[in-house]
Amino acid sequence: MTQKVALFDFDNTVAKGNSITRLLKYDLAKHPWHFFYFLKVAFYYCLYLLHLSSFEKAKSAILFPLNYMSDEELSDFYNQVIVPTYYQNVVAEMYKKKEEGYLVILCTASVEAYMQYNQLPIDCLLATQTQPDSCQVIGKNCKDHEKINRIQCYLKSLNMEIDYDHSYGYSDSDSDIPMLSLVKHKKRVLLKTGEMVDFIPKK
Fold it and tell me: Does domain 2-198 have CATH number 3.40.50.620?
């Protein structure tokens, strides 16, 4: 069965800024001594740049605040720090697409540990996964072509295929060109204003 879908990125698309950066600032404000963890972060990113380690290990290192946050704290972080950064016009677009019968999918490299507390009008959240109560990334970072894999796996579980001609995709970044290739109507969200315009690759 074909289904019209609306695919949304999150960081700088639904919410302004990078949510992981905000997570780090939130944690450091409460635990300034956690600054020393950035030595470990730098070490793993150097290994990644030298092709001696995976990006997922580097990302696990930078997600160290998850080791110290309860579910309640993660919920507070999302609702107090992330929700106020929403582009309200993009959220309104999500509601509109939901009302029009689109399957609304939020697909993001941000982590499920805090993204699960969103109350956006979505049918499915596809995010980077970590082990429970841990910063360790499970599987692959939900970015680039991995987004296609995650979306197609989800749709297959519903026995659905994307109605290409009638589907929409929203992102701020050229890194989401693979995801946007799944739909005909592509929209870029502008960083400063949140305005949605036709997506023209910058490359």
Answer: no
